[in-house]
Design goal:
The chain is α/β, with parallel strands linked by helices. It has 18 helices and seven strands. A hairpin with a 5-residue loop joins strand 5 and strand 6.
Length: about 425
Amino acid sequence: MKIQPPLPLGMLSLQTTSQPSSLLPSAVLVHLASLQSKRVFLMSNNSSRAFLEDESTGLVPLLSARGLLAAPLNTSVGMGGGHDGILRACKEARDCRADVIVAVGGGAVQDAGKFVRLWLSSSSSRSEEEEEEDEEEEEEECTLERLLQISPDESSKLPPQIAIPNSFALAEASHVAGLSTPSKTKSGAASPSMICTHVVFDSVLARDLPDWVKFGTAARGLEHAIGVICHPAAGDDLRERGLEGLKVWLGGMDKMLETRVEGEDKSVDGMEEVYLGGWMAVRALFTGCYPALGHLLQNHYSARFSAHQGACSAILSPRLLRHHYPATQPHQKRISEIFGQPDVPASKLVAQLVRKLPGVPKDHGDVGVSMEELEKFAEWMFETHGERLNKLSPRKFESGKELFEVMAFPLEEILR
């Protein structure tokens, strides 16, 4: 790919490749040398463990052999960024006095890396003598309350993070970090100082992911593009950037679907385009109008029902497009043009594409959500976040009942 999307302030580099052999080892060593980092805290999701521990190509033996790995590989962070796994990672990183985070995995792991950096920064001003005195006393426990109370400003110095995404959720492209609380809600932190330092996307890591992860995280890029194109606060420049990202994303997705063979999907065709198209869309969103309606609603849906956020994007995006069509008709026309069918509603085209995504849940029942549960969620969402939802929605919701009706609208009706 020749596309060079803009980098957010504070990020030093973005590398992408679709070559058959991984560029990770050399890229990580180059970045560590440039950062002068000596104590690496390596974290990943479980799906990347075998790749990272491979004796010939893995980062674990490579960093260990050079005396750079400060602690065993951490895999405590699960889907959705559960707080327990994040707190454990924070403790382990501080215990080993890490000076850099290398995060390998999807959005939950990348956001967890940002939280770990926050926790490390809360003690970075202490001297070694103070640290030794603290070790003789009871160590300060990392709790969710303490972690969320840390408020870095733009000038705060956080340890660097080398982000190595293995999918397409693109949390590494933002300065925001989210986690799931014990009450099954979303919380988080945001600061320009939390932006990742280096990003390396290597399609090799995504190649062997299960379909529900690969195509589910890819659906987030589609959601981000729709979000910025239809956002009430977006100007013409941001909408054009979102449309350009959607065009690149859609071209890559067509390749991914064409080259997929059931049970034998080893192709990386299209993955780099899907990643870069999603990057262009999410950076437009974060530049001037974050969050979008779908982003906010789907974050809470995911936390409440323990559903993968890619599934949330697939389930809700066509329905939200249908809801605000009267207010976004010209913008949705542009989306239809990108799909090559200008006379077909964008909601129908998105629903048709969602139907093609292998392994991705298509409707509420596919993730175990009943209509009764959905109605209760909609009422809670409107009562708790209704004002914010209506600021983000091009067409307002009058009640929790209306929000429920939008979310529950039959997909068969959209597909007609």
